Amino acid sequence: MKISLRAGELIYINGAVLRMDRKVSVELVNDVMFLLEGQVMQAADATTALRQLYFMVQMMLMNPTDTGDASALYLQHHAAICAVSENRELLDGLTAVDELVGANRYYEALKRIRALFPVEQAILTGATTDFPIQAA
User: Fold this and answer.
1) What confidence tens digit (pLDDT) does each residue in 8-57 have?
2) H or E stretch including 52?
3) What is the rounded distance in angstroms from the CA atom of residue 12 to the CA atom of residue 34?
4) What distance, in Å, lies between the first and last C-alpha atoms of the chain?
5) Per residue in 98-122, is it b (16+ CB within 10 Å) or e — as a string?
6) Could you tell me if 106 and 61 are in contact, meaning their C-beta atoms sit under 8 angstroms apart?
7) What phi and psi, each to the nearest 5 degrees, are found at residue 25?
């Protein structure tokens, strides 16, 4: 996988934080966990149930050698969301997220959670969700 980064941009790879001093393209030739700076959610932005779930999975991706605490929080939070949700689209998405997290595929889980943000927003505002889920 080839990734292009701008000068000063951060990338998180297998728990390491790298800052580029110039525009660069990086080719990841093996299976690594990475997260681009623009995909990183700050704790203050985790203001809804799904955003909090995103933040927990993000912590597992950013610190893959110590996922215990974040994993325990994730399991509790995921179960709580599933217990109170009646929206089939959201529940199906959360099932897919759980499978991805269980397989340590955190990046894909984050993409799936981001795709559920509009569904959650529609639920919170009382709107209907007549749109397909698309990966973010």
Assistant:
1) 999 988 878 899 999 999 898 888 888 888 889 999 999 999 999 999 99
2) helix 49-62
3) 5
4) 18
5) bebbeeebbbbbbebbbbbebbbeb
6) yes
7) -110, 135
Q: CA-CA distances (angstroms) from residue 120 to 8, 99, 108?
A: 33, 20, 19
Residues 12, 39: contact at Cβ < 8 Å?
no
Q: How far apart are CA 109 and CA 98, in angstroms?
A: 8
**Whole-prediction pTM value?**
0.81
**Which helix H or strand E contains 8, and what residues bound it?**
none
- Concatenated DSSP letters for 79-110? HHHHHH---HHHHHHHHHHHHHHHTT-HHHHH
pLDDT reading at 70 higher than 60: yes
Q: Is 132 helix (H, G, I), strand (E, B) or coil?
A: coil
| CA distances (Å), origin 6, targets 1, 28, 38, 42, 60 | 17, 16, 12, 21, 25
d(CA 47, CA 16): 26
* CA atoms of 112 and 97, how far apart (whole Å): 6
Quick one: residue 104, left, alpha or beta (phi over 0 = left, psi -120 to 50 = alpha)?
left
